[in-house]
Queue: 4 jobs
Job 1
Amino acid sequence: MSTDDKDIIVSVCANCGKEGDEVNNICNKCKKATYCNAACKKKHRHKHKKKCEEHIRLAAERAAKLHDEELFKQPPPAEDCPICFLRMPTLGTGFRYMACCGKVICSGCDYAPVYDNQGNIVAKKCPYCRAPASKSQKESIKREKKRVDVDDPVAIYNLGNHYRDGTNGFPQDYTKALELWHRAGELGYAMAYSNIGYTYETGRGVEVDKKKVLHYWELGAMRGCVVARNNLGVIELCEGNMDRALKHYIITVEGGDIKSLDAIKRMYLKGDATKDDYTKALQLYQVYLGEIKSVQRDKAAAEREEYRYY
């Protein structure tokens, strides 16, 4: 027998034992057992029931395991500031979107003065593309719309926020906001999935759907959104799944989420996490703080009265 002959798989009817290509009637549930016709499938149903249920259970366990491997995998790192090349802060107050060129820069680079070729400080310009700063909110929105036209995911996400809130001259339209967030998410902006999940959680313009909440927050988490993953941690914590909650929180702490660090501290005080867990979280957060620190960012932060999440 040749090697090719050994690789041939012959289908066998689970009821009568018939072999051949015509044995192609597969069990609709487990997709494992094959039969030569519907009659054999019906006759064998009572014998196959337990094995079928076992196949389905094992398949579900394998699917859940693969899903968790993907869900708890370390997400891709956030992009560094394109000017200073330092890690971008997680807090929304730590960075700014530039509608002129579509770049997201850190607050330190936004705060720093811009110089001309002779070293003189010039009027406020974009630190990246040197475009003059917008003179009004209307001009900023006009620039943002131009970025939307070239599929800039951050601009599309921001436009969705305008429709959600009914601000800056936009009518309040949850359907339009949801449409834009979907588009932004598909283009790679993870935060959009957090907003979609929150929409289904609160029922703003849609029916409350907990399955969709979980689905979109998981999409956001796997793409690096710390807000979405923190929300998943809260869900697991409320359901008593402490190990899963801790896994989410550890990942988000590494991503710079202070709320997750506070959550691990509370878990430790209640006995739901170990001292080692809390120590690890503190160390990860200190590493994050060290990577985002700069003199210009500190100066920019000193001028703000409070921090809040984006």
Job 2
Amino acid sequence: MTSKNKIDKAILESAIKSLEAPGKSFSKLPKAESKTKPVLYVFRHGETFDNKRKIFSGWRQSRLTKKGITQAKILSEKLKHKKIDVAFESHLVRSMTTLKIVLKYHPQAKAEIDDRIIERNYGDLAGKSKTKMMKENPVLAAEYRRAYNFPPPHGESLKIVEKRVFPFCKDLIRRMKKEEINAAVSCHGNSMRVIRRFFEKLTIKEELTMENPLGQDYVSYVIR
């Protein structure tokens, strides 16, 4: 697939910023709480070795770095006094390790694997350097990383990711209401984008240009 050599300036800039500072959020994360309604807590895994090396990860297994573990511990402390009844993770070790650290203070919470929240599949780009690609062809690299409907060869676009994450969100809402429970989701950069678009009614451009923090912080929504 080839690039049309046109990309929104804000989207290109967001791709560059995220490469310079992976997982650095430039906006305050929304947090809502309730004592009478179910609450959903959503967060991204801590830094991995692929994040540190600026490699396309996707469905690759990449463990948390020491910094990533520290980030997950910071997140764990922030969620320490929240009520979590059930938690969701993908089968990728970075999601599972982050959730395990968070659930240290929630031994009653049941962890469940649901790969609808797995990271975007980067196909043939998995394992390749983001930095090298940005130097060689910044527009094409930005499109692969940030365009809405421009999947890498044998991979997924964000639009495709939405087709599995949106149903997960709808199913989760029904379950939380029916069982009257709070839930947590340990997800990935792109699946978190989609979850936030779903709950915050974001535009596609807002979804594409946001950067969610690696570990350390969370968003929360009251399920009404």
Job 3
Amino acid sequence: MSHNLLRTWSLQRRMLLLLWLAVVSVPSASGAPALQGEVVGIADGDTLTLLVGDVQYRIRLAEIDAQEGGQPWGNRARQALADKVFRAQVRIDVVDLDRYGRTVGKVWLEDRDINREMVREGHAWVYRRYLTDPSLVEDETAARSAGSGLWAQSGAIPPWRWRRNGATPVASGDGAGDQSGSDCRIKGNISSSGAKIYHVPGQRYYDNTRIDTGKGERWFCSEAQARLSGWRRAEV
């Protein structure tokens, strides 16, 4: 996608966000737009579902990034977030709307900053690409030094790198094991024309497909992960 198209998309996305917030939001303590409702679903350590009235919103926690479900500590991060907010009434201070249509924001449970707690307890990384509050880095550093959460394991892989490069073997702290093993068998292949196509076990060309991570090809643990990463399923 060209720079101009990216800029156009960004402007359109922000205009949509502003119009949407004008309709559904309530003011936060700081005057910023916010959503208030009940947490009715936890997808992973940085994504939840919020019920506002009879409408559900997919919420992506701002400035943090938790291990994916197929990664070591991914399931524990998800459980940690669930333990904090599942079925609780929370406020979301809205920051943005991402390209997947999710609301990006900071989660507050009364006076508790849940995004910060996830970092401070070692359940999430600071997502430096989207960081606006540098003090979060201090919390991550303290968690690393204390060996809290995911930092108790050696060789932890940042989730953004794991998503980019596919399943990568790392030392496991929760029994997840080798990511290229039986749980991550979907092959994300890039054709000579540049098309990103994934093959699942049992498909015609699965056994003959070889993955070269140096070319950007990768393994996936689920078809949903493959589709979100821009791959499409092979037709045969």
Job 4
Amino acid sequence: MRSDRLYRAQAIILRRGDFFEADRLLTLYTPHRGKMRAIAKGIRKPTSRKGGHLELFTHSQLLLARGRNLDIITQAQTIEPFLPLREDLLRASYACYVGELLDQITEENIPNPRLFYLLRDTLARLGQSRDLALTVRFYELRLLGLTGYEPQLFHCVRCRGLLEPQGSFFFSPMEGGALCEACGPLPAGGAQQAGGAPLSLAALKVLRFFQTREYELCQRMHIRPALHSELERVMYRYIAFTLERDLKSVGFLNILRRQDVAPNSPSQRRGNP
């Protein structure tokens, strides 16, 4: 194989699917090419040496060959396997959500190194975090900021007035952020997107904190279950409106929560969901 066709890249595997009899089509996220797809030939054969290095959410060093339509992975070496994500169903499910959100919000071949490192750090955090929802809310806000969809949380998106820590607040996915007490209520009989859903002062403060502080500070917060539920509703509505679709992994996470699956539960230490 000609050496000018070969190149090396770090990558995290976001998605994979069977391709022909023994190959796999992988969706990768890389620091310098962004999201891309590549073929791993023969990976499903029992004798393949690449299989263990190309598992879902593995951070690997790859050697690729440029192809006419899709590049081909010729070598792979694991940098970080993120093993806790393979041993705990709930952590694995949150990782699926993190990967699906990045996959859906980005286009192929648009470099964004900061997104790659956010993904890498988030997968590592999900393996250790005692508050997985907090870790994911931080990721969502940073991801939205890096892709141009950051919600406005400091000024009313309609009247542009500063949102002071008093009175009532609302959040409008359609208008891209928070609304003041005067601008936010739904009109009588109006559609949901015409106004904003109520947003508590506590939720506004937490979202602002995640948006402007580093993770090391954010992870120290203790968030009550009711507030976690509100934050999740706000972010899921905003993300679904932004993507114009619901994410499949959200439904699976909701099923796990209804079953009250806790991180590190011995009965839930399985493979990938």
